[in-house]
Structures are given as structure tokens and as C-alpha cells.
Design brief:
- By secondary structure, the protein is mainly α.
- It has one domain.
- It is globular and about 50 Å long.
- The termini are far apart.
């Protein structure tokens, strides 16, 4: 038996000790990364900060082409970020007051005015707890050009998700082995709880957007641009 064990390839050995990622998530992982990354860069709150990072990290450990995950994460994030930037551009000061805490609004606006695209790159490349949404809305409201915004945001996100995918492909299997050892039997529960929270967050974001639309309409103010 020991001879057979040592003759196994790493892939066969990993298959024998099933890692805690359901098969359907592996097969549909690229599309899932795209959807989550769009939401992650939008005004819809996600139940777990850095959800796209975690998903890319886990899937890169089992995916045969991690670069596809990077493309999906970057393209989805650019789409979500552009929609948020557009909402800030069209909503202006009212949008910032609605989504940015008052104690952060003045220093954040000043920093974005002084640093411009550098502030966008910093927010896009740094991990949580650095918040992304306030920077994207402020960039739109303060008139950072679309071309400059997309270029800086896209480059920063490419660097970030490429690094995460490399980490997942290089060290992810060890992390998943530890997960299997200490959370055996709970991986499906954790996954479905996260999906449930994600659906609730999307529904809450849609409700909040419609509620803000009705409030702005009654007040006679400008309507924010749709972001989902």
C-alpha cells in the first residue's frame, strides 16, 4: 500500500483527500468570480469584505488556469467600479452624503482632490479594511476623468488579483488541507451561509436604491444613477 501511495501523482493524492470546494463551484468558478467582483465594487454591501479575494484564493488552488480567474475578477471589478464612479458623477454631493460617513467626507474629498488617480490606485490595490466604495464615489463626484479612472483602477486591480491568484496557486492547497482538517463537515454549511448572506445583501442594495430614488423624487433632488 505504501508503494501505491508514493506512486500517486499530487493530483491523485489531492483527489483522494477531497478538498472543501464543491465540484460545481470549481466548474462555474470563473463566472462566480466575475459576478462577485462586480458586486464587490458596487454600492451593494457584501457580507464579507474582500469576498472576491477569498474566492480567487480558494479557486486558484484547484483551477487549471488561474489567469482566467484574474481576468474574471479584474473585468468584473472594472465594470462594478465604473458603475459606482458613474453614480458618484451623476449623484454628486448628494450621493457622497448618502454613502460616505460625514466624519470621513471632508478628509477623503481633500485627499482625492490632491492625489487624484493615486488615491484610486491605493484604494483598489490595498486589502480590507481599506474601503473602496467611498473612493470610487468621490472620484466620480469630484470629476476625475473616466479614462484616467479606468486606467488606474484597472492596473491596480490587475496587480492585486494577480498576486492573490499566485498565492492561491502556490500555497492554496496547503490552506485547503488545513481547512479540511479543522473544518471537516462544515465547508458546505459555510459556503451556503455565505451565499445566503450574499443574496440578502443584493436584495438589500436593490431596496436601498429604490428607497433613495423615492426619497430624492419627493425632495425634488437629482436621482442617482443605477448601479446594479
Amino acid at each position: 500500500m505504501s508503494v501505491t501511495y508514493f506512486q500517486q501523482t499530487p493530483a491523485q493524492h489531492l483527489h483522494r483527500h477531497r478538498l472543501p470546494i464543491p465540484a460545481w463551484l470549481i466548474h462555474f468558478g470563473v463566472f462566480g468570480v466575475f459576478v462577485v467582483s462586480v458586486i464587490d465594487a458596487s454600492v451593494i454591501p457584501l457580507p464579507l469584505p474582500g469576498s472576491t479575494d477569498l474566492l480567487v484564493l480558494l479557486l486558484a488552488a484547484r483551477h487549471s488556469a488561474p489567469w482566467l480567474l484574474v481576468i474574471a475578477a479584474v473585468s468584473g471589478s472594472i465594470l462594478g467600479g465604473y458603475l459606482t464612479w458613474s453614480a458618484g458623477k451623476k449623484g454628486g454631493e448628494a450621493m457622497l452624503q448618502r454613502y460616505v460617513p460625514k466624519r470621513f467626507l471632508t478628509p477623503l474629498s481633500g485627499w482625492v482632490k490632491r492625489r487624484g488617480v493615486v488615491s484610486i490606485c491605493a484604494a483598489a490595490i490595498l486589502p480590507p479594511p481599506i474601503p473602496l466604495l467611498p473612493f470610487l464615489l468621490t472620484a466620480g463626484a469630484l470629476g476625475i476623468q473616466r479614462r484616467h479612472f479606468l486606467w488606474s483602477f484597472g492596473v491596480a486591480r490587475t496587480v492585486r488579483y494577480s498576486f492573490i491568484a499566485w498565492l492561491g496557486a502556490t500555497y492554496g492547497r496547503r490552506v485547503l488541507r488545513l481547512w479540511s482538517r479543522y473544518l471537516a463537515g462544515w465547508s458546505d454549511v459555510i459556503l451556503w451561509v455565505f451565499i445566503g448572506l450574499l443574496v440578502m445583501a443584493i436584495l438589500f442594495g436593490i431596496w436601498k436604491y429604490r428607497h433613495d430614488q423615492r426619497a430624492s423624487s419627493k425632495a425634488g433632488g437629482p436621482l442617482p444613477a443605477p448601479v446594479s
